[in-house]
Structures are given as structure tokens and as C-alpha cells.
Amino acid sequence: MKPILFLIIFVISLSKAHAQHTYAFFGSFNRAQDTEGLYVYELDTLSGKLSKVTSFAGILNPSFLIVSPNGKYIFACTESKTKNGGSVSSFAFDPEKSRLRLSVNRKAAAKILFISPSIKTGNGW
């Protein structure tokens, strides 16, 4: 009885592990703002295969990306040396609808942009 119960629990845990989704986000150096610049791929952790989920056109050279700790938002810095560059944008990612939506796009006041994954929690960062 114990081996059968162990096997059932093992199969259920494998199916749950396989059901989890892992996403990879890529920024690019695109030549025109009307071309795709930000990409979302799903990673099959068993095979290592990447499959394109969605992309976003309308952002020029989103070369530095960071994902919020909850995985719902992607922040992108654009290159400051390109014409009209030097901005920070946030995107809402909805994996159920395979949708990436621009939330905020702000031109940077400085030439050097930096974004950090740190989030203030409790008494520290």
C-alpha cells in the first residue's frame, strides 16, 4: 500500500511542477520604435525550449530589464544616447491572456538610469 501511495503522491507532485510557468523577458536594440523591442518567452524547464508568448513594439532600445518580485511588472530602461532615449517604462504582464501592456513611460531627467529590484519591506530594503 505504501509504494502505491508514494507513487500517486510522486505523480501528482510531478504534474504540479510541470504545470508551473517560467518566463524569460528580453529587451533588444531595435532600430525603429515601431518594431518589436521587448519579448516574453515561456521556458519549458524540462526540455529547455523557449516559446514566444508575446512582444511589445513602441519602445526603443529597452536594453536593461528587471522583473518585479511578484512577476506582474517588467521595468525597462531605454538607452539615453539614442534620440529621444533615456526613459523608464513599466509594463504589466498578464500570463493568462499572454499580454504585455505599457503602464507608465517617463523620460528620465538624468543621463544615467538605474533601476533596482529592491523593495522596502518591514524595517529594511
TrEMBL record:
One Pfam family in the UniProt entry: Lactonase
State if Nucleotide-binding is listed as a keyword.
Answer: no
Q: Which keywords are on file for this protein?
A: Signal
Identify the InterPro entries for this entry. Lactonase_7-beta_prop (IPR019405), WD40/YVTN_repeat-like_dom_sf (IPR015943)
**Annotated signal peptide:** 1-19
- Lineage top rank: taxon: Bacteria
What is this protein's record name?
A: Beta-propeller fold lactonase family protein
Q: Which organism is it from?
A: Chryseobacterium endophyticum
